[in-house]
């Protein structure tokens, strides 16, 4: 592999941290101590990790309801993420946003929201601002296959294509629009084709191959920085947990309509197991080193949970604190 | 220090103010359909494209939802976009970026991110344009936390409020009315601010308070003139902003006159007039000598036929009738 050990280790560690962070939420969701709706990223880690590894700290990302992975991969603090999910004051949005509204401008997580396709236009606007300011920043807009049903996506493909904006549209196609398979919501299930009429270069590729995701994104990022955007990347993946929560079992009724055989097949393609195997086979890491990394990730997740638990809930008297930003005195 | 003897129309004042704003802050962008063409937006954007170029003044595809989101996104990363909707009816496509995104943004980020965007929706009614080219939809937006709504009625105020709105770190909706565009008044050349949420007494009176804003203020002032010849002295309050609105000025006026009429050039049911009425009922009921009256549009879509339009829109005669009626009413 033409990459150094630290970089590859970093990719593995990020994916593993995201997975363990997500899985650490299962028990609290089941016992009711987490009440806010949580859309777990388990199984899709290679996309956030590979894409964000190709970005600089100053670049922007926008996401959707399933964005814990994006938040962490872009550099967001895990303790602040978990605290937010618990509705705590030390959360990244001070307990006002919850799992589905994560905003952390300091790390370039400019906004993730649950309105399907809701941030695609915002991301396009951020890219327009970068183009005007000539600051070479690149914006990534993450959305799912379900968002391809929203008209605003096509409005923005047209506008981004027209203005040649430095934006990468990243469609995480996990094959299901909540409870509907892609072929029940689309005429053509090859999503990357939708960019073509707008003269936007696009590609469909394996979203469970972290290095592949990284390489494709890096090339798109370079082109965007040299004023040759936009790009449309479709990554195929699969979620290992429910649409919302640990599984799609609602009040005892199993609503996950995905065939058992398909779930089994995709478990074999788990991006973390796959990458670990590759690292071991290529002699990049030893068994001991992998174990050590796993332990470090466990420790990180434990500490992040501890940070969240030790944070207070917001003060009831501050219910309306952030409705409007107070005007700063202009000299 | 102000040059007090220069007259300007409402629409030319918008043009001059936009020019001033674009010149003073290169983060300000003007985005929307028709900013290159007077056919869409009157004289309000004349010359700006030529002066500031296509990066600062962006005429756009007809994609209201997406393009409004573009303005919101640019604001999130530090620009100060003004996004114009030449007919407010089309702005309904942009409910998501205005309400779901911009208005909620500062709150749901716990204060770490804000959206200094100015939405501009033009009411463009009359002339038999009918239902989808005539709606005045400001009340809907005044309902939304996190969004400010300004509704200036004079050239002086439109300049001062636009400058305040651009300086505001929050999303602000500016609603104007094409019926205001030819109104001419004194406008200082120098920049100045009119604070958002501060009303003004347009005419003092002792008998009845008539609360109004935007275009309806001018019909109300004509009505007050007629009423004076019938020995009824109406106090005309122009709210200038409807979110936040000036509660003090309403209370003071109602306490003085004991009678309240609200003139709102939009529909009656669930509209902003109901908010004012409820506010006075909650806070000054004991001062009222009679029930509150409202002069609004009937709960009917805007018609096309000129005959029906005449019946539909608010005229000063309708306000005069309401005032004649209220001064004879007594609280049971």
Which descriptors would you attach to this protein?
heterodimer; A: 331 residues; alpha/beta; Rossmann fold; 7-stranded mixed sheet; two-stranded antiparallel sheet; 40% helix; B: alpha/beta; 2 domains; 12 helices; 14 strands; globular
Quick one: CATH superfamily of the largest domain in chain B?
Thiamin diphosphate (ThDP)-binding fold, Pyr/PP domains
**Major sheet: arrangement of strands of chain A:** 2-3-1-4-5-9-8
Q: What form of chain A results from the Cα inertia axes? A: globular
| CATH class wording of chain A | Alpha Beta
How far the N terminus sits from the C terminus of chain A, by CA atoms, comes to: 56 Å
- Low-pLDDT segments, ≥5 res of chain B: none
Predict the CATH topology of chain A.
Answer: Rossmann fold
Count of individual beta strands of chain B: 14
Class of secondary structure makeup of chain A: alpha/beta
Instruction: Give the % helix of chain A.
Output: 40-55%
Count of discrete domains of chain A:
1
- Rg over CA atoms of chain A: 20 Å
The helix fraction of chain B, in percent, is 25-40%
Strand fraction of chain A equals 5-15%
User: Radius of gyration of chain B over alpha carbons?
Assistant: 20 Å
The total count of helices of chain B amounts to: 12
- Strand percentage of chain B, roughly? 15-25%
Mean pLDDT of chain B: 95
Major sheet: arrangement of strands of chain B? 3-2-4-5-7-6-12
Kindly name the structural category of chain B: alpha/beta
Ranges of chain A where pLDDT stays below 50 over 5 or more residues in a row are none
């Amino acid at each position: 592999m033409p990459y150094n050990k630290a970089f590859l280790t970093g990719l593995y560690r990020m994916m593993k941290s995201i997975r363990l962070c997500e899985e650490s939420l299962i028990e609290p969701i089941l016992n009711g101590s987490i009440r806010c709706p949580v859309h777990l990223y388990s199984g899709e880690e290679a996309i956030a990790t590979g894409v964000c590894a190709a970005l600089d700290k100053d670049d922007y990302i926008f996401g959707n309801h399933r964005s814990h992975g994006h938040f962490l991969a872009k550099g967001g603090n895990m303790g602040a993420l978990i605290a937010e999910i618990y509705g705590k004051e030390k959360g990244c949005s001070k307990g006002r946003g919850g799992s589905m509204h994560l905003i952390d401008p300091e790390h370039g997580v400019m906004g993730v929201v649950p309105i399907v396709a809701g941030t695609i236009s915002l991301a396009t606007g951020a890219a327009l601002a970068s183009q005007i300011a000539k600051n070479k920043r690149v914006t990534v807009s993450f959305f799912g296959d379900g968002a391809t049903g929203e008209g605003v996506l096509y409005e923005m493909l047209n506008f981004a294509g027209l203005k040649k904006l430095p934006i990468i549209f990243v469609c995480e196609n996990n094959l299901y629009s909540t409870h509907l398979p892609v072929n029940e919501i689309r005429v053509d299930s090859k999503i990357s084709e939708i960019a073509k009429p707008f003269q936007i270069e696009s590609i469909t590729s394996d979203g469970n191959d972290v290095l592949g995701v990284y390489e494709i994104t890096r090339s798109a990022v370079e082109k965007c920085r040299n004023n040759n955007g936009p790009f449309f990347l479709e990554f195929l993946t699969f979620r290992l947990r429910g649409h919302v929560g640990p599984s799609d079992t609602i009040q005892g009724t199993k609503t996950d309509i995905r065939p058992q055989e398909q779930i089994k097949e995709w478990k074999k393609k788990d991006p973390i197991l796959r990458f670990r195997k590759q690292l071991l086979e290529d002699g990049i890491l030893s068994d001991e080193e992998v174990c050590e990394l796993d332990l470090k990730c466990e420790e990180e997740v434990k500490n992040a949970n501890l940070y969240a638990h030790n944070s207070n809930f917001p003060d009831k008297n501050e219910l309306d604190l952030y409705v409007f930003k107070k005007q700063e005195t202009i000299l | 220090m102000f040059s007090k003897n220069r007259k300007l129309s409402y629409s030319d004042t918008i043009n001059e103010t936009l020019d001033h704003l674009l010149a003073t802050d290169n983060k300000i962008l003007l985005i929307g359909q028709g900013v290159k063409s007077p056919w869409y937006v009157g004289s309000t954007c004349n010359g700006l494209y030529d002066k500031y170029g296509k990066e600062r003044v962006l005429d756009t595809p007809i994609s209201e939802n997406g393009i409004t989101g573009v303005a919101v996104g640019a604001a999130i990363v530090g620009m100060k976009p003004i996004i114009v909707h030449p007919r407010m009816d089309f702005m309904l496509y942009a409910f998501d970026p205005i309400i779901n995104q911009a208005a909620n943004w500062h709150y749901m980020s716990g204060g770490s991110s804000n959206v200094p965007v100015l939405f501009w929706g033009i009411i463009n009614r009359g002339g038999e344009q009918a239902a989808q080219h005539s709606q005045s939809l400001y009340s809907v937006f005044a309902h939304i936390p996190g969004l400010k709504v300004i509704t200036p009625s004079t050239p002086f105020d439109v300049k001062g409020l636009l400058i305040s709105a651009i300086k505001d770190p929050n999303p602000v909706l500016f609603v104007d009315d094409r019926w205001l565009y030819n109104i001419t008044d004194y406008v200082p050349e120098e920049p100045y601010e009119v604070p958002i949420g501060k009303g003004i007494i347009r005419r003092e009176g002792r008998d009845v308070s008539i609360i109004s804003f935007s275009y309806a203020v001018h019909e109300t002032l004509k009505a007050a003139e007629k009423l004076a010849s019938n020995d009824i002295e109406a106090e005309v309050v122009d709210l200038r902003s409807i979110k936040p609105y000036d509660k003090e000025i309403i209370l003071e006026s109602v306490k003085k006159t004991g009678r309240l009429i609200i003139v709102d050039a939009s529909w009656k049911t669930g509209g902003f007039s109901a908010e004012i009425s409820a506010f006075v009922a909650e806070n000054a009921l004991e001062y009222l000598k009679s029930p509150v009256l409202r002069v609004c549009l009937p709960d009917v879509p805007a018609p096309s036929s000129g005959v029906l339009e005449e019946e539909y829109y608010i005229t000063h005669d309708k306000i005069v009738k309401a005032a004649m009626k209220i001064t004879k009413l007594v609280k049971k």
